[in-house]
Amino acid sequence: MNTVLEAATSYVKEELAGEGSGHDWWHIYRVEQLAITLATEEGADLFICRLAALLHDVADEKLNESEEAGMKKVADWLALHAVDPEQAQHVLSIIQGMSFKGGGGQIMPTLEGKIVQDADRLDALGAVGIARTFQYSGNRGQLIYDPDLPVRVTMTKEEYRNGRSTAINHFYEKLLKLKEHMNTDYGKKLAEERHAYMETFLKTFYAEWDGKK
Ligand code: ADP
Ligand code: NI
């Protein structure tokens, strides 16, 4: 493997050790694998996609004092590893575009940015997406489902705090909307497959809930 990618892999494993919010090393691993699949299909720069995928959560504000501090950490790492300044700038702009609250929905100007953003979104879908949702929900002490709570497609911070969300509600609030936000053709195709799998899951879930299956 390319030595920069190898070094980035070790660095990220260390940085995210003990990360419990769904952004552990294996999330990064899956996003990198998806980025490779998408970059190959879409004819994008593999090195940029892989490096940005590996580093995409290192600058997250959850792990740093501020967004700026997080970005500086990544910039310093790229400089220390002698990444070509133009490539480093490209990777930084991708991470900047996807890491932050409010920035997560940003339109990515380059194909590589579109790919890494698609890869991150795909990891919230399908069988893995379902698993991550229930893990996150359990971690927050939420119910798996509560038929007495009306489905809410937008939730406020207060509602979260008051326990008015459930794992199942998160599908309506976010997961089922994601396929409309894919950037690339191949990303869209994979999102549609993962979406269909989640629809099947929900159908079976409700049938079981009412003892019909
Ligand atoms: P990102 O990887 O884009 O930063 P988030 O931090 O929003 O995504 O979420 C990480 C994982 O946790 C995702 O798989 C997501 O579905 C799940 N998750 C986020 N918010 C909730 C929630 N309110 N209820 C259940 N799962 C959630
Ligand atoms: Ni991510």
From TrEMBL:
<dbReference type="Pfam" id="PF01966">
    <property type="entry name" value="HD"/>
</dbReference>
<dbReference type="InterPro" id="IPR006674">
    <property type="entry name" value="HD_domain"/>
</dbReference>
<feature type="domain" description="HD">
    <location>
        <begin position="24"/>
        <end position="125"/>
    </location>
</feature>
<dbReference type="InterPro" id="IPR003607">
    <property type="entry name" value="HD/PDEase_dom"/>
</dbReference>
<protein>
    <submittedName>
        <fullName>HD domain-containing protein</fullName>
    </submittedName>
</protein>
